[in-house]
Amino acid sequence: MKKRYRFLLVVALVAIGFSFLWPSIKWYFLVPQADKEIAESSRNRIKEYSQDEAITAVDRLLALPAGDPVPAEFSYLIADAKDRYRSAGKSTPSAWTMGEVLSAWTGRKDFQATVEDHYRTYFTGLKSLRSRTLQLGLDLRGGMYVVIQADFAALDQSLKDAMPEADRASTKPLSDAEREDYMSRVLEVLNNRIDQFGLTEPSIRRQGTDQIIVEIPGTSDPEAVRRFIMGKGLLTFHIADTDTLVAVRAYEKSSNTVLLDAAGNVRDQKVLALLPKGTILRGVFKKDSYGIDEYKGYAVLHEEVGLNGIYIRDAQVSRDNLTGQPTVVFQLTAEGGEIFYKLTSANVGKVLAVVLDNKIKAQATIRTSIRDSVSVEGFSADEAKDLALVLRTGSLPVPLEIISQQAIGASLGEDAIRQGINASLLGLGLVIAFMMLYYRRAGINAVVAQILNLYFMVAILSAFNFTLTLAAIAGLVLTVGMAVDASVLIFERMKEEIRLGKSNTAVVKAGFDRAFWAIADSNITTFIAALVMSFFGKASIKGFAVTLAVGIVSSVFTAVFVSRLIFDFNLEVMHIKHLRVSWRTTS
Question: What average pLDDT does this structure show over 392-420?
Answer without folding.
Answer: 70
